[in-house]
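Case study.
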Amino acid sequence: MKDETIIKNLKTIMNRRGISQRELANMIGKDETVISRWFAGKVGISTSSIKLLETVLGEKILIESDKKRALITGVTGQDGSYLSEFLIEKGYDVHGIIRRSSVDFRERIAHLEGHPQFHLHYGDLGDSMSLVKVIGMVRPDEIYNLAAQSHVQVSFDSPEFTADIDATGVLRVLEAVRACGLEKTCRIYQASTSELYGKVEEVPQNENTPFHPYSPYAVAKLYGFWIVKEYREAYNMFCCSGILFNHESERRGETFVTRKITLAAARIAQGMQDCLYLGNLSSLRDWGYAKDYVECMWLILQNKIPEDFVIATGVQHSVREFAYYAFKHVGIELEFRGEGLREVGVCVKVRGNVSKDLVGKELIRVSEDFYRPTDVVNLWGDPTKAKAKLGWNPSKTSFEELVKLMVESDMAKVASEGVAAKVRTNLAEYLEKGIVK
Ligand code: NAP
Ligand code: F7E
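After joint prediction, the assembly is written out as follows.
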């Protein structure tokens, strides 16, 4: 997309000024065949060649408006970071909204800061004025609204904040787009969730399954889903929701159950933690890989018509199974004994460098602290529509591969932690005491 537009601009300048291919080649000190190959689309045109052409011609051939512009709210989060990488690769100019933080280190996007296609702006989903300002300035072709208070347990602790950001925040984005006069041109993706199915009324869940939200988070997200649908119908806006089932990665927040498990497995295997405390081990989830899921967000916005899609793998596992495979992968074989609050995961065998002293020890225990007032226990998505209409492949990364790549990343992280180990020990203690959930 980018090269075609650059060549088009270059040809327009050459025609207007009567410059032949040979003359252009002389002007930039290259062989004429190089120019012919650019024009035939046989080779890409490098950034340094673009700069050289612009200098000798004294005119811009890479016009900023030729690049598609995407605005991502929640750019510092797991999905925001992968989506930024994906869109940059596609040639987009990516703009992200960040909140001011007392710790000025944005771990997940640190590697992108300074990239010429990556730009950050301060804003907040609780602050309409900041949204109007950023959207009006960036004038995006696509908005990916990923910002949210995304932790279900935290939504019980901070329900009002969750509603403000996850429900009203969506309305603020939609209204900001209208206030900037972009409702006819800007496509909007809303990060919706399988939590809408909550106390499930059907298994597996598809686009027609009735919603039954079962946490303050899910109730807020339900408003987000419906307001997007309303604006689509009322104002004919291209806005849609991706109903995404759980997706995890090496960048997943450390208090979500998968990451909590892979980090603990790595720490226990390396002798830095004694035991992992979890809540409902029987809870069932359809876990996919976040990197695969961001592609789908983009595909949803490239669709001919605005529609909502379920994004899932179609495969379901329990928290207990996730823990079993994660520990197995670090060299610890677990056997689960007992039931409910008395259930424990006992080490029955070790391999590799793992200490034999662990054999016979209870490495996983259940704590009531991690039980939720209402818990969603049977999520299982049916991605048939996304497969058929978007051509998306839900089986790109299997459950086993996902567990493996998360565990391997945490094994390496723990091994190289050094000074940070103490901070981690404190976090582990807080997790154990249920202060941080
Ligand atoms: P995440 O890692 O928790 O990231 C959330 C992002 O939202 C962070 O960048 C955070 O910024 C930002 N944010 C929070 N409050 C904000 C506010 N008031 N104003 C501006 N930004 C704010 O979440 P994720 O896993 O990437 O998920 C992305 C989206 O998909 C969320 O909307 C989530 O609810 C939804 N979702 C996730 C899953 C999943 O399994 N991951 C499944 C379905 C739906 P800070 O870094 O400053 O905190
Ligand atoms: O819990 C159970 C817990 O916190 C999964 C968010 O991205 O996905 C995520 O929400 C299950 C629940 O994710 C612990 O009770 C047991 O049944 O990893 P989670 P979530 O609640 O499914 C959805 C789709 C989103 O939209 C959200 O934004 O695991 N569980 N023991 C535990 N959960 C946690 N966090 N910690 C435990 O110790």
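Observations recorded in class. Residues 73-80, 97, 99, 101, 124-126, 146-150, 165, 191, 193, 244, 246-247, 253 surround NAP (ligand 1) (CB under 6 Å). The mean pLDDT is 94. We will return to this complex in the next lecture.
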